[in-house]
User: What shape does this take?
Amino acid sequence: MSQSIPKTTKTWRVKGQNGFDSLSYDTQATLPELGANDVLVSFATKYQYSGSSTSIGKTNQFFFRGLYPFALVDEVIPGSDGAGEVIAVGSKVTRFAPGAKVLTLFNQGHIGGSLDQLTAKTGLGGVLDGTLRQHGIFNENGLVNMPTSLSYLEAATLPCAALTAWNALYGLKPLKPGDVVLTQGTGGVSIFAVQFAKAAGATVIATTSSDEKASALKKLGVDHVINYKTTPEWGAHARSSPPPPSA
Assistant: This one.
């Protein structure tokens, strides 16, 4: 069966380092030819990022503001995370077929083992064009299957935030039931860390800046919440065993 491959796509690009004002929208960006080992992924349906999803994290804000410590290509397509649908595959692709739901890998060249200087230079949205576009072409080894239990919106945050949290909990010294985990704030990495830690049977202490966020953390199962604005000495507060009741 023939595959329908678009010739152009819609993209965002980073032009300059003036925050979000540096973003430029292109409605007629040329889509490269599909290579033998490549996969064409759709990150959007019609004209909205509604069917498939991308996400913007802290790293992307560093791109826009000129604070990213690694190489950054001029006019790169930003976005390191994305969940989408495969719409075409190259002749030698074996891992995916049209219709598959996939996630992008943050470092496209990092297949396994420790990250090194070479693979660190293959990050999406910095050196390689990222996910803030309607369609993207990736080597099949730069994609993984998306969990079927998650929506596109939920899965789009997995490649960077979730893996960062997972690596912190299991990368050097694997988390065990009964361990105590301290998370700071309510960003994506911390929220994933809370959920992973609770699922593993750990006690979780979390810091935040408001009662509203504290309520959200408690709904996720956090055992002790510390408001660092009303409790400046939150470190000592967290080290006490068990921590005093939340303020």
